[in-house]
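Hi all, long-time lurker, first post. I run a small reading group and we've been trying to get comfortable going from sequence to structure in the token notation. Rather than ask abstract questions, I figured I'd post a concrete chain and ask someone more experienced to write out its structure so we can walk through it together at our next meeting. Sequence below, copied exactly:
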Amino acid sequence: MFKALIAAAILTLSGTVMAEPLIIAHRGDSGERPEHTLAGYERAIDQGADFIEPDLVLTKDGVLVVRHENEISGTTDVADHPEFADRKVTKKIDGTEITGWFTEDFTLAELRTLRARERLAQVRTANKRFDGLYQIPTFEEVIKLAQAKEAETGRRIGLYPETKHPTYFASIGLPHEAALLAMLEKYGYTSADDPVFIQSFEVSNLKLLREKTRLRLIQLVASEGGPPDMPGVTYADMMTPEGLKAVASYADGIGPSFDMVIHPDGADSGLVALAHAAGLQVHPWTLRAENMFLPKPFQVGDDPAAHGNFAGAVKAVAATGVDAMFSDFPGLARAALKP
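-- Answer (accepted) --
Happy to help. Here is the structure in token form:
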């Protein structure tokens, strides 16, 4: 059934016929609902997303929960809870000092007393009306939602979890790998044919996962910096033909920032062709509709929070031959790909 997902519709662009890339709902329908909420994931599925993306961190009692970061002051109302005031601390995460409240210092029961908030409140002001409505979901709840929507719609809904700061979490006795694979196996996800991709900006945990599972793995990369677990190695090093060959030894694809796939003028950078030559899929992140996140040629007007020519940006990325793309606006991205 998953192969039917890959063999998606046909997109015609500038006279070129190509397979329509899969749409990955970045943290849910996060352009229209607070990110990483069950409401956002359900809305993304209803808008036609092929995959939903939960970022995974762990609680003090070892439960996988869904937050963009383990520091949660920007995405919850934790600062408004006086009973947790003494949990505010400063930690070094991947070499950067961060002050706030961290999931690993809370049990799941304690996290359940918090409510989600819009992270980009100055940009997505309409989403603030949902502040306080939703709990932090567990990874298991996201899986159950996806499978319930499969039963409702008759189509397969893919899962695209990201392990956040895996080396850090392993260092404090809360490794991702066993908990993640056990949860996926519990719900029937074990093989390369299942609609699951596991992603990470780190390398060592992907290599560890490769030893333990045939589920597909994606090496995330950015236009700057390098893997936190590999000092001295840059993502740019990894995107050379030799570097891509090395990635292909443990991963099934790469997830580059979309500015690595197209140049600022929207032209193809050539990275997709290089990755495909190495046998890797390409799933760029993250296409957002607001001007402030779009390349200059796709901006419209002077308001950075207003929507620009999002459809044009989606089509430019699709024209490079990517296999999938992440978007905060999965419904708009799907519409942009229609002939």
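A couple of things your group might point at:
Residues 1-18 have pLDDT under 50 and may be disordered.
The first strand starts at residue 10 and ends at 13.
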